[in-house]
Specification:
Homodimer. By secondary structure, the chain is α+β, with helices and mostly antiparallel strands. It contains nine helices and twelve strands. The protein has two domains: about 1-185, Ribosomal Protein S5, domain 2; about 190-325, GHMP kinase, C-terminal domain (Alpha-Beta Plaits), CATH 3.30.70. The structure holds adenosine-5'-diphosphate, (3R)-3-hydroxy-3-methyl-5-(phosphonooxy)pentanoic acid and magnesium ion.
């Protein structure tokens, strides 16, 4: 039996544009998904996903038709819900050269689903690492990231960047631009997350941006402008002392860039009323900056604030269900028990 965990993330900047080869900087946060894999010798797969609830039902499933969850939700939604774990199992079998391996898989996660904090990437990364290790094969984190990317790419119909999965596998702050991916030095940034209790459909939101970008030159320019924000942000971070407290002027400049990024994402149609309300509550509470994180449509915003002001303001914002500080997770995927 092997248990591995992997962190979720917030985007400092660059989501959506990263899908078209622009750079992005996601940062791993201390909210993790834990996946336990226990090989079975009958070749079957059984999954217990207690935090995956569809229409109020907790989901567990197996690999035969009779073993699919018998709940009153559209098949498509159920298939989509199970897709990431099924793909992770496929990648683990392939990496361990054990196409017929069976597993009992248990998933626990404190990352809200579909909310822009990268729950899918964390589950896939931890799942591939736990699955392969339980078969006696240890993959370097870079290979776990590659395989997790292939899994996300398959579930999201070819609409995925390497950003979430690389960040979850490596931990810390990372910069991804097409095939180029690296960990970067960053100071401990005072992230505050606001969560509206909702979710967005990543595939649908990415498709929406793709369509706008194809229809309008100015939408394509908006995507490029997000890339420009990230290029500027990269320069700003390069000038920072990664070991010390971040200086107020550094936070002010990163915050201004986050605000700009949110405006561009909003122009691309991926914000929502509740995300905007939380962003404005943070700004009015004197956060350095605030933006949606991840695919958008609903879910989470991330603000930069080293005082308690934003958390208090979000607590009183209608539509905000939860607020928490998110510390940078130095560890990416790691073994918890074996
Ligand atoms: N705890 C979990 N157990 C099983 N599957 C999960 C879990 N958390 C996330 N997932 C999978 O990830 C999907 C959400 O991923 P996505 O829409 O990309 O949003 P995000 O990555 O922003 O959380 C869920 O529908 C489910 O398939
Ligand atoms: C919109 C996108 O840039 C980020 C999606 O993040 P999340 O799954 O919503 O956490 C898509 C991608 O990079 O694959
Ligand atoms: Mg995701």
């Amino acid at each position: 039996m092997t248990t591995c965990s992997a962190p979720g993330k917030v985007y400092l900047f660059g989501e959506h544009a990263v899908v078209y080869g622009e750079p992005a900087i996601p940062c791993a946060i201390e909210r993790r998904a834990r996946v336990t894999a226990e090989p079975r010798n009958d070749g079957r797969v059984r999954v217990e996903a207690n935090d995956l609830s569809l229409d109020g039902f907790t989901v567990s499933w197996g690999d035969s038709v009779e073993d699919r969850p018998d709940i009153d939700v559209p098949t498509q939604l159920v298939e989509a819900g199970m897709g990431y774990v099924d793909e992770a199992v496929g990648q683990a079998r392939d990496a361990a050269d054990a196409p017929d391996a069976g597993f009992d898989i248990t998933i626990e996660s404190d990352i809200p689903l579909g909310a822009g904090l990268g729950s899918s990437a964390a589950v896939v990364v931890a799942g591939i690492d736990a699955g392969t290790r339980s078969l006696g094969v240890e993959l370097p984190p870079g290979e776990v990231a590659d395989r997790a990317y292939r899994a996300e790419y398959a579930v999201q119909d070819g609409q995925a960047s390497r950003a979430d999965t690389f960040c979850s596998a490596m931990g810390g702050a990372v910069r991804v631009e097409g095939e180029d991916r690296r960990t970067i030095d960053a100071p401990e940034l005072p992230f505050v997350v606001g969560y509206d209790g909702g979710a967005g459909d990543t595939g649908e939101l990415v498709s929406g941006v793709r369509a706008l970008r194809e229809e309008y030159g100015f939408a394509a320019d908006t995507v490029t402008a997000i890339g420009d924000v990230v290029r500027r942000g990269t320069e700003v971070l390069r000038g920072a002392d990664p070991s010390g407290e971040p200086a107020p002027d550094l936070l002010a400049e990163l915050g201004r860039l986050m605000d700009f990024d949110h405006g561009l994402l909003s122009a691309l149609g991926v914000s929502s009323r509740s995300l905007d309300a939380m962003v404005w509550a943070a700004r009015e509470a004197d956060a350095y900056g605030a933006k949606l994180t991840g695919a958008g449509g609903g879910g989470c915003i991330v603000a930069l604030d080293d005082t308690g002001g934003t958390e208090t303001a979000l607590d009183y914002t209608p539509g905000c269900e939860a607020t928490f500080r998110a510390e940078l997770a130095a560890d990416g995927v790691r073994v918890e028990e074996s």
